[in-house]
Queue: 4 jobs
Job 1
Amino acid sequence: MAARRRVATGGGIGGGSPGVTGDRPPGEAATLVMVNVGRLVTGDPRLPAPGVVEDAALAASGDRIVYAGPASGLEVAIGPETIEVDAHGAAVIPGFVDAHTHLVWLGERSEEYALRARGASYEEIAEKGGGIRSTVAATAAGTVLELATAARARARRMLRLGTTTVEIKSGYGQSLEAELRQLRAARTLGEEVDLPEVVTTYLPLHGLPDGDRAAYLEEVLGKGLGAAASLAGFVDCFCETGAWDVDECERLLVAARAHGLRAKVHADQRSHSGGSALAARVGAISADHLDHAGDGDLRGLAKAGVTGVLLPGASMVLGGPPPPGRRLLEAGVTVALATDCNPGTCWCESMPLMVSLGVATAGLTPAEALLAATAGGAAALGLADRGRLLPGLRCDALVLATPDWLDVGYHLGANPVARVIAAGRLLLP
Ligand code: NIG
Ligand code: FE
């Protein structure tokens, strides 16, 4: 690359998007320039999925992409502060957006894991006081510091595996204050620059409380939502037999609107419990799990513009029908893949593994799975500024340890990520 070239404003891929190079003040130097990108996976919907540009380059100014396209079209100003990254022919993809996790917990449930292997079901274990209840027992009394310390180790592993944005739910508190401490712990991580960016979700209806469920729900509606509104962007509920029913969940999701909290639903995970229909009815931003959703439910999600979040790790661990990736796409639903990282149904920080499982178990093509793990995750969180590598969007990019983006899913259980750039900054290595 010829350094110190004068800025030109050739748009490159995505040149027509808002915030393209041409909108920038002339003469401002790029803060990051990446060259020798063998294949750049842009996610540009105008190209065949997943939007690959060969022999490409990428440039950012601050946290924004100013160029993403063929190397031959790169013309940006290089200044003394510009970081130059040589990708050495590797593939570069957008950072993963993990849109569904329960990252803040204490304790562990390895015994359940072993019990399930001997045939005990998730429900049987929960009925005997295990499951969510046992994690609540270990987590509820945790201080913000203890909770953040435990979650930080998981978030670090996520970053190393390429996650640049992570959603984190409460849900293991089941008292007003304990739920809020989990949200505060999640937000603490969000302030740390060397971790994925954090989006928080208030999940007050998860396991059932020890006491009176009606009284607990009233407290959540009366005080919880107001208190959580400054700590979370979304509200969620576990709509399931043995957990919270459709009416209880609907009351929560409707009441949350007045507090500016957008709805998410753990929907039709373990049975056809009505969660997907509820998500469509309340205009949720996402309906998650969906293992037992019917085709009519999926059409309802499409009509209501609800993103379907698949958690193929949890589906695999618990058994049951395959996640409906192909059926969702055929119904016209935007699909996201996420880890569901939690101590019971899927302790996994790896989005590359979710891409593998999306292909192997949910009927997605490798390109669809990669987009579901990036742009799909962004859609499930209402983040229009990320998930693709296009001018004007946040520069969250992964340099892979391979020239072939297909290896993300193909190399099962591996970490394909060599370098992580988040918000235009080189975070790893
Ligand atoms: O997404 N389904 C409910 N919540 C989690 C599991 C939580 C747990 O078992 O601790 C899930 O699978
Ligand atoms: Fe979950």
Job 2
Amino acid sequence: MTTNPSLSIITLMTLLMCLTPTLIKSEESIDVLLPISLNLTVLTDPFSISAASRDFGNITDVNPGAVLCPSTPAEVAHFSYDSESTTSSPGFKVAARGQGHSLRGQASAPGGVVVNMTCLAKTAKPAAVVVLADGTYADVAAGAMWVEVLEAALARGVSPVTFTDYLYLSVGGTLSNAGIGGQVFRHGPQISNVHELDVITGKGDMVTCSPKLNPELFYGVLGGLGQFGIITRARIALEHAPTRAKWIRILYSDFSAFTRDQERLISMANDLRVDFLEGQLMMSNGIVDTSFFPLSDQTRVVSLVNDHRIIYVLEVAKYYDTTTLPIIEQVIDRLTRTLGITSEFMFVQDVPYFDFLNRVRNEEDKLRSIGLWEVPHPWLNMFVPRSRILDFHEGVIKGLLLNQTATSGVTLFYPTNRKKWNNLMSAMIPNEDVFYVIGFLQSAGGSHNFEELENLNDRIINFCDNSGIKIKEYLMHYTRKEDWIKHFGPKWNDFSRRKMMFDPEKLLSPGQDIFS
Ligand code: FAD
């Protein structure tokens, strides 16, 4: 293991004296107790505490004792357990927080220390994102957001290959989950596109890891829900960047045709292969967002939804640049002929590559402007095995969702390939070659009552359990240990063993509620 000897600067005794939750009262008391040479920025003012106690989910409210705004990785390491010590652990918990876009307090540390990873990104030298001269990878401070990685890479004509739908998430935050979106079927999740990580374990060791160097930590941390260490740097794979995207939405009234075409598209390997594939549902009991479609077609789209009750929207993108421009129209033409799509149900936008990847930002602006961004978000995300997708559709989409008086938010629905995931990593997916990503991205507020939405989520999970549909939840939050054991299934033993190896005092990411 590559460890940094300077990490023993702070002894466990100092930690016990300075940082037990009861002693973290004000900046003044921290300054008095911490060795001056450390010069740590530890915030305990009400504003900092309140900001760190909430997240995007707007469901939980968990106060930390303090917020650390580190300027070097070594400062983060001071807050970990000193493994050389013979005395017991300091007792307070530590959670890294990227953008706090968790849903149910996963980045919280009750009474402990929340480490604001954006501080580290701001002070990273020479920059938060450093693109290698040949453009093959970028070294990124884990607190940087994906939008910053993209901007820095595009300035050099390159780009990461796989993205979340929303780019204002931290690199460390998505790598702790998986980082999925419409490129996953082709390139795998973000955790499959990392070459190397710097991690500070729960024992205070600063470790560089990769598939060859300390692989146990590397694979554990990817999708590891922050349990084994705090990622401070990630080496992200890059490729040549296109400049524009043909962004296409195709409407289906028939579920079988919709999924057949989705599955066909993710299995293509020739020049017809698309670069991005997702899908979503438009339902007559929900708000039908027609903003993608030309003004002249919007009424027709609404009528289609009302007539059929559900319209399935297949969403693909094909990237291009000046070299591929002459053939792009032909490729799209061949693609639609292959699928047998008629032009009246197909809509195309031609947009800059960056704008395509940053498309959810517009939705955020719209929701913020009408006060519907900072509301409770009881989102339910899951992976459903392909073999049961028809049963899922009948039971959940038609049986439960369509029978609601009104649905809220967006429902994502698209298949992806298992072969692009590495089973050594901590992230869990169904045990089938193809599985579907389903996201019920519901918002409470307006006419939607939080309890009703939670109740719907429970009924969805119960339906799957009772019908034997072996889903895996994503971005989940369980409070019972048996649910975690069930979630990790055959990986639970490895997951617990890695916890003992890298964070034996169980200090890290307590908000996930796995080992507390
Ligand atoms: P935080 O909420 O700050 O942290 C999440 C977890 O990771 C916590 O347990 C935290 O302790 C841990 N953590 C954070 N940083 C580090 C670090 N450096 N080292 C170790 N552990 C760390 N996800 C997708 O996969 N695909 C999507 O398309 C997608 N779209 C989204 C859209 C929106 C609008 C939102 C709000 C979320 C979306 N997500 C998506 C979910 C998102 O990926 C996760 O919530 C992710 O954790 C958010 O990153 P964050 O920086 O806000 O993490």
Job 3
Amino acid sequence: MPRIVFLGPPGVGKGTQATTLAQQLGVPHLSTGDLLRAAVAARTPLGLEAQGHMDAGRLVPDDLVLKILGERLAAPDAARGFLLDGFPRNLAQAERLAGITTIDLVLSFELPAKLLIERLAGRRVCPTCQSVYNIVTRPPKVEGKCDRDGTALVQRPDDRPEAITTRLAVYAEQTAPLLGFYRKSGLLRSIDAAGTPDEVAARVRNALH
Ligand code: AP5
């Protein structure tokens, strides 16, 4: 039963890798960013409270994120294991997570800031099926349209330059200390996130074995 955490800065490719690996392992991909964006799109009270924080690139308050994640972790499919993407994001969340479940492995994805910014600035997403593209590295077949359903692709509000700057600073201040936390517990493996998605996926598979 694999219980894996994907850790890494914005734009490093966590979601891209987690989508593929979760299918291969037959476990759910639990992304707190995706769960929060779904709550924003559905205009739930939680989503409305989270939206301003997300659009500005700040972390959403811990209690809101824990509520949404706790509900998802309690679903039957998560009993088979899971890939946690984007959680925990600070020490308080890591301590709360340790009280809820055991983690077997933490993969830390690493990439220079210049490449992170390029990947984020080029990202486009489908608002219908949530597929992720990149105008430079993973363009859709027809410019500006989702390959799966033809919907016009959009840019995430937090992929605009001001929000990217804030997200990178928040990562350095609040999330990077988790590397030491998980290294001490012997769970951490580093993954070089440079290169194509297939090259990175091969490194992820090696780290699992
Ligand atoms: P979240 O959605 O988790 O965003 P993030 O961690 O900033 O990560 P991203 O989704 O931006 O990047 P990614 O690493 O998944 O990269 P991707 O695969 O898409 O969180 C958003 C917000 O929600 C937060 O800012 C916060 O407000 C809130 N939130 C979420 N969790 C929270 C928590 N626990 N606590 C509090 N608040 C929370 O790839 C990026 C681009 O690069 C894509 O275009 C992709 O096609 C491309 N790409 C991917 N891999 C490669 C490759 N190998 N080569 C070239 N291009 C590539």
Job 4
Amino acid sequence: MNYNKKTVKDIDVAGKKVLLRCDFNVPQDKATHAITDDKRIRAALPTIQYLLEQGAAVIACSHLGKPKGEVKPELSLAPVAVRLSELLGKEVIMASDVVGEDATAKAAALQPGQIMLLENTRFEPGETKNDPELAKKMAALAEVYVSDAFGAVHRAHASTAGVADYLPAVSGFLIQKELEIMGGALANPKRPLVAILGGSKVSSKIGVINNLLEIADTIIIGGGMCYTFFKAQGANVGKSLLEEDWIEYAGQMMKKAEEKGVKMLLPVDGMAATEFSPDAEAHLVDGIDIPENMMGMDIGPKTIALYAEAVKDAGTVIWNGPMGVFEFANFAEGTRAVAKALAETNAITIVGGGDSAAAVAQLGFADKMTHISTGGGASLEFLEGKELPGVACLLDK
Ligand code: ADP
Ligand code: MG
């Protein structure tokens, strides 16, 4: 996968109409549809402002939720246009469709320095099918395509990839940063490269484990997936999260790490509970055998010390997956301690994954990381080393 892609700075946009794919898939209040977190809109501002300053006419677009190819008024992007307009301090012209009469007329009339927003791209049935006819119609609105929706680059949809068949395509600043930092860490990492993998399931992280085994110097395992690894070593895991079907695989991964000379660190102690509940009491378990009536909920103090030591002299740390059930205060310590260790190391620190990013933010370490990937699913596929259609479609440098 080539991560060296042209950006808005490599192309002349002055006086041109630019179709800008943003990630405006914001969380909304279920009853009022009010935007509950405008982080993604704020994140899009640097690219939008740059384009407007350069004298481009910006035709922004995005999906929101899953309307499944139908017009669903509750999934209209109109509230995003309002918020975007407040943040930019200028009018954002809202189109009532994606490639229909209204969008076409408004795009045609749009002047340099002006911005409009198309309706939810997923109102169009062709969007998620990457229908070339829809892509062609979107492309016809503009002269240049800029993609800045990192959260959607793992999907080959009309607005994230298809449209690049018909227009010169470059990245905005958000995708540029993801490619530079995450792409750089995967393609040419500052070593030693330490990968910290946690979260709930082995099965959802197979691709990530496989890929990082090829490139990391050390792999650290935590979270719910460690019990499947414990089981592979013949330990008792009690009521812990266990994926029977993946025990053999976990064993193979440990063997593979050994063969490749990759250091694999597993927890040596943990915090367990008798029930999965926010007010469950935390019991220290020394060693990896979890009592029959308990489930492992977090890594323990010895493990924390071991893991903190392992990231101290790292050149790069890639972290995906919380170390424990961080949503419960009694079991957030492992994740907090690892976040703190990352905050204190001189290494390049990269956090990928939706829950991991949320955990780091919730625990107050967000501004201490080199980079927190803005794409949940996209950042996982990135770490898996998969080709991302929304990146592959951009012009190479
Ligand atoms: P990401 O979204 O960053 O890729 P995951 O979705 O894989 O991360 O995992 C996050 C979830 O893993 C969290 O909701 C957390 O509560 C859960 N988790 C972590 N440790 C455990 C554990 N020991 N038992 C059960 N769930 C766990
Ligand atoms: Mg998740």
